[in-house]
Specification:
144 residues; 33% strand; globular
């Protein structure tokens, strides 16, 4: 599950820029640690229409959850979709081939308004580290 949901640190940054998508999971800050919870209710989706048939998705970044120190724990894909649909920024991660250290990945941040690349960077990490860097860089752009 580690590679399905963004980290607590990224989720916190997303909340700061008004990420408002309902999620199936949340992080709750305990005095010593961040605790990850999946929604207690069972969820059912129609695979053709993607409509929720049963259960509840919640925006843990809003309402009384603020007082509890609870924040939404979105899936990576929810974050990518949110930036694309709400902010017209496309996040792409590309395998650039191998070097002496292993596989290199690049991220590209593209503006869908003018179809130009906003930022690109080569990362000598793994796919998810490149994705984390891309999301953090996109958050920085939205904070400006």
């Amino acid at each position: 599950m580690k590679n399905l949901f963004v980290s607590y640190d990224i989720a916190k940054l997303l909340k700061d820029i008004q990420f408002d998508v309902s999620c199936i999971a949340r992080y709750t800050k305990d005095s010593e640690q961040n605790i990850f919870y999946l929604s207690a209710s069972e969820l059912s989706f129609d695979l053709v229409s993607s409509k929720l048939l049963y259960g509840k998705l919640l925006n843990y970044n809003a309402g009384f959850y603020d007082e509890e120190g609870t924040i939404s724990a979105p899936l990576y894909q929810q974050v990518i979709d949110w930036f694309r649909d709400k902010h017209n920024i496309e996040i792409l991660i590309c395998d650039e081939g191998e070097n002496e250290l292993g596989v290199e990945y690049s991220y590209y941040l593209n503006s869908l308004n003018n179809h130009k690349t906003i930022k690109t960077e080569i990362c000598e990490d793994n796919y998810y580290e490149a994705l984390d860097k891309a999301i953090k860089e996109t958050i920085k752009l939205k904070q400006q």
